[in-house]
Specification:
With about 525 residues, the protein is an alpha+beta fold. About 10% of the residues lie in helices and about 30% in strands. The chain contains three helices and 28 strands. It has a five-stranded antiparallel sheet with strand order 6-4-3-7-8, with no helix packed on it. β9 and β10 form a beta hairpin. α2 crosses α3.
Length: about 525
């Protein structure tokens, strides 16, 4: 299996982030090249990328999302920040005008959204803040400042010279008015006068009951809403809330519904959590043709697809329960009663047998199931029986109709099989995984065994292990119990055949001895 080391320096991302104020979307383009530890691009590879907006270097996560993308023939991939699967936060709620924002980048080269390596953080400079500038408007006008102090009164202009007194003549025409002198500086502002008396309080224009939240019952009057506040707990539809928020509906569903412009807001839209009043069932209900996703620690852990399939470690479960990655299951039991077993596979009706299957991607596999007489059967995916197990015996299917190219071994071939049996290397041994000292990988108490070595068995009885999940088992030899039993059967028949031949030879020799004795007696009489 190809391995990719999860180290910070193993992959090199060259990122280019672009944003423009005039663009019709608020997403941010992100482009990078994924490389392995040798610096070579990861070409035509499915990968998972997780991007997070941080409030300051190493600060809290304001928003995080992941996307599954494929690199091209140069290892290049492109995505849009703000267009992926949200892990936490709301992209549209980020306040770009405040804070010191950083972009954190993580990469999962397996493309399973489960094995991320942090690639680093980089400060977002001027370009992303075009998102804020595109929609920003002028702030509200500030309050009027206080009136400045009145300046000092200016000096009077100089008086013109007095003309000579002439003889009293006729009154002349009135001369034009002289130009107005410049206005002097304002004087100092006087002190503020005393505050007037407070007017009478007007009448409250609402009606309602103590502890109920008031609502407008008309444009100018108020009354009770369905929200009740006891001072420590809030009830909706109840005046005796039992928790911080208690929702009660005696006639139908008591539930909270979450919807959006995408889902619509009819009674059959969105996502609801509540209880069915008529039956008392607790209900988690998604009205949409979308999955329900569960996550912890900013990571998706499990999802229920719209089809009803449950996925763990995969975002596209293909079966009722689809688990990707290494899975450890633990079942503890308290007795041998069926009702006390931690895992029970049962049949829905008579004639249906409970079973479990192990199926390869090509559709081949084996199925374990139990029939109506408490016998465990081993089947292939066509229903053919390989063998059965019950409390008394292990049986293997051996009907002639299940076989082809049958060759009946004859007596003349017995000797070659006896020779193969003679070549089997008997031995005593210990298994490597056994140890009297508890340690990792040693799960069994050390015990001396007696048996034989697979390398000495005939090739028909030996299998070579391939495509093993445990690397140390790759290429190791196993033997088929049915083949060994068949070989032993041939050996027994061969020994029996030799025994018959030996007995016949002994009978012939005894007859010869009897004939020789008779001849000797006859010779003795004729002396």
């Amino acid at each position: 299996m190809k391995k990719i080391t999860s180290l910070l320096g193993t992959f090199i991302l060259f990122a280019l982030i672009n944003a423009a104020v005039a663009q019709p979307t608020n997403k941010i383009n992100y482009q990078a090249v994924a490389r392995n530890s040798a610096g070579n691009p990861l070409v035509s590879t499915g990968i998972s990328v997780r991007l997070s907006i941080l409030n300051g270097s190493g600060g809290p996560v304001l928003y995080s999302e992941y996307q599954n993308v494929a690199t091209n023939a140069f290892g290049l991939f492109t995505l849009q920040l703000g267009g992926g699967f949200a892990v936490s936060g709301n992209y549209n709620s980020i306040v770009w005008s405040t804070g010191n924002h950083y972009l954190k980048t993580e990469l999962d080269p397996t493309g399973t959204n489960s094995n991320y390596t942090v690639m680093g953080e980089s400060q977002l400079l001027s370009v992303p803040y075009a998102l804020y500038a595109a929609n920003a408007s002028g702030g509200p006008t500030g309050p009027t400042g206080p009136t400045g102090a009145t300046g000092a009164t200016g000096l009077n202009g100089s008086t013109g010279a007095t003309g000579a007194t002439g003889a009293t003549g006729l009154n002349g025409a009135t001369g034009s008015t002289g130009a107005t002198g410049a206005t002097g500086l304002n004087g100092a502002t006087g002190s503020t006068g005393a505050t007037g008396a407070t007017g009478a309080t007007g009448a409250a224009n609402i009606n309602g009951t103590t502890n109920y939240l008031v609502k407008f019952t008309s444009a100018t009057t108020g009354g009770n809403s369905i929200i009740y506040d006891s001072g420590t707990q809030v009830g909706i539809g109840t005046t005796t809330p039992a928790n911080d928020l208690h929702i009660h509906d005696p006639a139908s569903w008591a539930a909270i519904t979450f919807s959006s412009n995408t889902t619509g807001q009819a009674i059959t839209d969105g996502f609801a959590v509540g209880t069915n009043s008529s039956a008392g069932d607790a209900v988690v209900w998604d009205w949409e043709n979308q999955p329900i996703i569960f996550g912890t620690n900013s990571l998706e852990r499990m999802r229920i697809a719209a089809s009803g399939n449950v996925g763990i470690g995969t975002i596209a479960p293909a079966t009722t329960l689809h688990v990707v990655g290494r899975t450890n299951l633990r079942f503890d039991y308290t007795s041998f009663n069926i009702s006390d077993q931690p895992l029970v596979i049962g049949a829905a009706a008579a004639g249906n047998f409970p079973s479990a299957g192990f199926i390869a991607p090509n559709g081949n596999g084996i199925i374990f199931g139990i029939d109506g007489v408490n016998t465990l059967g081993v089947y292939d995916t066509t229903g053919a029986v390989y063998g059965t197990i019950n409390a008394a015996a292990f049986t293997v299917s051996s009907d002639a109709s299940l076989k082809h190219d049958i060759h009946n071994i004859v007596q003349s071939e017995y000797e070659q099989y006896l020779e193969q049996i003679r070549n089997i290397q008997s031995a005593t041994y210990y298994y490597n995984y056994e140890s009297n000292i508890h340690s990792a990988g040693k799960h069994y108490r050390e015990q001396k065994h007696i048996g034989f070595l697979a390398q000495s068995l005939p090739k028909e009885a030996v299998n070579v292990m391939k495509d093993c999940k445990i690397p140390e088992m790759e290429g190791k030899l196993t033997y088929s119990l049915s083949e060994v039993i068949g070989l032993n059967t041939i050996g027994i028949k061969a020994i029996d055949y030799k025994q018959q031949q030996l007995e016949q030879t002994i009978l012939q020799q005894q007859q010869l001895i009897e004939n020789l004795k008779s001849r000797i007696e006859l010779l003795e009489k004729n002396k």
